[in-house]
Amino acid sequence: PTAIHLADYRPPNYLIDEVHLSFRLDPGATRVISRIRFRANPEGLDDGNLILDGEKLRLVEARIDGSPLTALDYLLTDTHLTVPAARLPGDSFVWEAEVEIAPRDNTALEGLYMSNGMYCTQSEAEGFRKITFYPDRPDVMAPFTVRIESELPVLLSNGNQTSQGPGFAEWHDPWPKPAYLFALVAGDLRPVSDRFTTMDGKEVALNIWVRPGDEDRCGYAMDALKRSMTWEENVYRRAYDLDIFNIVAVDDFNMGAMENKGLNIFNSKYVLASPETATDRDFDFIERIIAHEYFHNWTGNRITCRDWFQLCLKEGLTVFRDQQFTEDMRSAPVKRIEDVLQLRTRQFREDAGPLAHNVRPDSYIEINNFYTATVYEKGAELIRMLRLLVGVEAYDQALQLYFDRHDGQACTIEDWLAVFEDVTARDLSQFKRWYTQAGTPHVTVREHFEDGTYRLTLRQTVPPTPDQPLKEPAVIPVAFGLLSPAGIETHPTRIIELVDPETTIVIDGLAERPVPSLLRGFSAPVILDHAPSFEDRALLLAHDTDPFNRWEAGRSLARETLLAMLADGTAPAPAFLDGLARLAADETLDADFRALALALPSEDDIAQGAVDAGLVPDPTAIHATRKTLKETIGRHLKPTLDALYEAMDPGPVYSPDAGQSGKRALRNAALGLTAHLDAGERALAHYEAADNMTDQLAGFGCLLDIGDPDIATRFHDQWRDDRLVMDKWFLLQIAHAAPEKAVALAETLTGHPLFDWKNPNRFRSLVSGLTVGNPAGFHDPSGAGYAFLADWLIRLDRLNPQTAARMSTAFETWKRYDADRQALIAAELTRIAGTDGLSPDLSEMIARIRA
Ligand code: B3K
Ligand code: ZN
C-alpha cells in the first residue's frame, strides 16, 4: 500500500446528480443494484476517465446509458473499476451496476455486515466501496434513494421513508451527502419512540431501535437526544432537517457511534443504560456521544470534508461542540478538568511519541488510523483557542457565516479559517500552524520581581516530531491572573497572546511578590514548564479563583510527591496531605470537583512525568509507589474520608445527574482510599447494598484490590447474561489484578466461554484491561504482556484490521522504557511486522511505531 498525500489532491472527474440503490438482502449473497447519474466536473482532470472505487465486490453486470458493458469496456482491479473516457458516451450518463456481496462473511465490520442476525453498515471512512462501485470520496455529494428488500421486519436507511410494504421499504434522502454517510439497517428490532418540534415548527419522529428486551434501557439516550436538539437550536441556531431521526444500537461495532444522515448507528454500550447496569460514567458518555453524533448533522453532514486530510474540520469542531453542551448540562469546571485529563492522557502521549501527527495530517496509508486523539481532542482545543482569541461574539458570527456560506459543500481548513478572518479581519496564518505542526508546545516560565515590578517571561518551543525537526512559533493564548501572597486575587484573568518565541510582560506598582496563576482554564494545549514553590502551589490550591488551576495545583503537588517517593522514598509532605484533607472537606466545593482532586495521577501519567523529569520510568515501581501514596492518604485522611462516606449518600432514588453522580464519585473515592484499612469490610457492605452499577463497581474494584477470593465469581453469576456488564467484569478483574498475575489472568480469561474475541467491545475490555488498566502487568519484566498483546493483534488482524490497528497503540510509548523492555517490545514489533498477510491498517501502525 502506498501513502496518499494532501498535496496530491485533485478534484473528481465526475460529480453525481442522483443515486438509486436497491438491496436484496441475503447473508451470503446480497445483491446491490445501483443506478447513478454522473455529470462531468468542469474542474476534473482532462483525461475524463470514470474512476470508481470497489473492493470485495463480485460484479454481475454493468451498463452505461442502458448498454451492457463487456470486460473490454473497463479495467477492473482489486480496488478500482475504471471506464476510459473513450468508452463513455459524453459529459453526462447513467451508470448501472449489479454486484454481489456477503455480509455474513464480513468480519471487518466495515461495509455491510451482520451482527446478531441484523444487517448493519459502517461506511466511514472508506467502507462504501465494499457495498458497490462508487467514487468513494467525501467531495462527491448526492441525494440518495434506497430500496431494501428483505423479510426482516425493520428496514431502515437515510432520509425519510417514502414507501413500505411486505418485504420492502424505500427511503429518500434529499440532502446531498458523501457516500461515507450512507447507512442501511435491517433486523428484528423494536422502537422506542418520541417526538420533537423544531424551532421552525417541523415535527420530527424520533426512534431508538434496539433488540427485543432492551427497550427499557433507552430512556436516557432519548432524553439526551431531545436536549441535544434543543441546545443546538438555542446555541448554534441549527434545526434538524428531516421528518425522522433514527438511532440504532448494535453490539458489534468498531467504535463508539456513527453520524450517518438521519440514521445514527451506535455501539450499544453508548445507548443502553439502566441504573442497575450502567455507571454514572456510562450515562455521561451516552449523553455526550448522542449529542456528538447529532451535532454532526450540521458540522460534518450538511457541511462535510473535501478530503480525509480535513477530518478535524468535522471532528475537532464537533468534539468542541459536544464539550460545550456537556459544560452547559453539567458542571463546566469539572468537565474542563476531565477533558484536559483525557487530552493529556491520550493526546499528549500520542504527540510525544512515534505516532505524532498534525491535527491536519499531510499523508496517510490507512485513513482509519487517523481517527486519533490529535484529530479529535487537539482539534477541539484549536477551536476553543480560536474562540478565546476572537471572542464569543465573533465566534458566533463566524459560525453563522460558515453555515450560510458552506451549506451543502465539502470544505477545507482554509475555508474554516477564512470565515474567522472575514468576520474579524484578523490574519490567522500564524494560528494555522496549529493545524500543520505536530507536537505539544512547551511554554517555559521565568519570573522576576524587584521594586514592586513583576516581569513574567514566557518562551515557547515545540519539540521535533517524526518528519518535522524544526517548528515555527504558534499563537498561544495564555490566560493568567495574579494573587497576593495572602491569596487575594489582585489581577483578574487576562489573555496574553504569545506570537514570538519569547514574550515578557511587566506589571508594576505591586506591594509584594505576586503568585501567578497561569494558563487558567487550560487556555492552550501546551506543557507549562514552571516549577513554582510548594508554598505557591499550596496557595493556588487553596485560593485560586480559577477552579481549573486549583485542581492543577493539587495535581502537580501529587505528581511531585509521587516522583519524590519514587526517586528516593521521600515521604509525602504533611502539608500536602493536610491540603488534600482541607479540600476534601471544603463544602463550598462541588462534590465532583472534590472527587477529582482526590484522584491520583494514573500510572501512565506518572510514567510520563518521570520521562519529563529526565528519568526512565519503571512501571513496577510506579505501581507500588502509587499504591503506597494511596494508602498513606487513606490513613492520614481517615476521619475526613469516613465523614464523607457517611455524608455523601445521594439518597434512595437513583439519578445519573451531575449532582448525584458527584456525590457518588466523592463517596466512592473515600471508600477507595480507605478500603484496605478494614480488610474490605466496608467495601463488601457497599457492594452488597448497591442498587446501581456505579456503587457496585466501586465496591467490586476495592474487593479485587484486596484480593477477595469470591467476588469475581459472585459478580459473574449475577451478570453472566448481560453483555455490557460482562465487558466490565473482564476489564476490571484484569485491571485490578496484582501486576505479576495480570498476564496469566488475561490468558485464562481468553479461555472463558464468554470471551467472544470477534466482538470488539469484549476484545477491547479484555485486552485493554491489561494494556491500559494494568500498566505494571502489561510491562511485566518477563515480556509476557508484550507477547500476549502481539499474539492477539496478529490473530485479530486477520478478521478485523481496524480494531487490531487501534489496539496496537499500547506500544506507542515503548521508547520511554529501559533497554530490556525496549528490546522485548522491539522483538514483538518485528514479529508482528513480519507476519504474512498483515493488513495495511496494522502494518502502517507498526511501521510508524517502530520508526
Ligand atoms: N465519524 C465517526 C467515526 C468514524 C470512524 C471510522 N473509522 C464517529 C464520530 O466521530 O462521530
Ligand atoms: Zn465525530
Explained architecture:
Its cofactor is Zn(2+). Its EC number is 3.4.11.2. GO terms for molecular function: alanyl aminopeptidase activity; metallopeptidase activity; zinc ion binding. This is Aminopeptidase N. The protein has 851 residues and is α+β, with helices and mostly antiparallel strands. Among the domains are: 4-188, Sandwich (Immunoglobulin-like); 304-436, Neutral Protease, domain 2, CATH 1.10.390; 442-530, Aminopeptidase N, middle-beta domain (Immunoglobulin-like); 709-851, Peptidase M1, alanyl aminopeptidase, C-terminal domain (Zincin-like fold), CATH 1.25.50.10. The strands form 8 sheets. An 8-stranded mixed sheet has the order 6-5-9-3-2-12-15-14, with no helix packed on it. It is globular.
Major β-sheet annotation: 8 strands, mixed
In percent, how much strand structure appears in the residues?
Answer: 15-25%
Mean pLDDT, all residues: 97
Present as ligands are: (3S)-3,7-diaminoheptanoic acid, zinc ion
Please identify, by name, the CATH architecture of the domain at 4-188. Sandwich
GO molecular function, one term: zinc ion binding
Organism: Rhodophyticola porphyridii
Enzyme class: hydrolase
Protein name: Aminopeptidase N
